[in-house]
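Problem: given the chain below (243 residues), write out its structure.
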Amino acid sequence: MTMRFDDIRVLSFDCFGTLIDWESGIWAALAPLVARAGGGIGREAALAAFAAAETAAEAADPAPLYASVLAAVHAGLAHAWGVAAAPAADRAFAAAIADWPAFADTAPALRALAARYRLVILSNVDRAGFAATLPKLGVAFDAVLTAEDIGSYKPDPRNFAALLDRVAGFGVGRDGLVHVAQSLFHDHGPANRAGIASVWIDRRAGGAAAGWGATAQPPPGVRYDLRCASLDELAGLVGTGRN
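Solution.
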């Protein structure tokens, strides 16, 4: 699909999976647990197990901070993989979010986009996790909305209602906003329901064909207005007017 950005004033971004290579970060942080489980668990299987556990935890109780969700997910995976409980290892896994790397194109693309648009973060992380991540992103955001701020986790519609409320404070309505994200499950589905245009940054280059990785499989019928393989591609399209 094509879309025009001439009237867009705000770009909102998912952070983990879109700007931050959370799959590489998660896999690296799971390495000690995988080793304790005997080393027979591959990357894709581990990421799929993470996705199922994280989605279930966030849906069951939106109150805990994301660090607590990560620790609980690690503990659940240890149990499922037959590894003895180790609360210190659970906490170390949660703390490793500070080590998850940014994609190589993230900071340059954000700097280019910031010259033209207001930039907003809408993330399922908590404030401390985002604060540890911000230096890797290379820009100052006009607003940051975390699950801790909102009290729910995407794909809960409250997160996108909060986004619209915050953007309204800039004097920008729904038609002046585009949401940019990797996860069809967490982001594009609820953006569709909220009437917000969206750009899919297809970091796995093919979605279902390559597996869904650390993200839950989306429901049928999820849409997006533009698909890009990278954030750099989006910045290039906007910069050259080919949108």
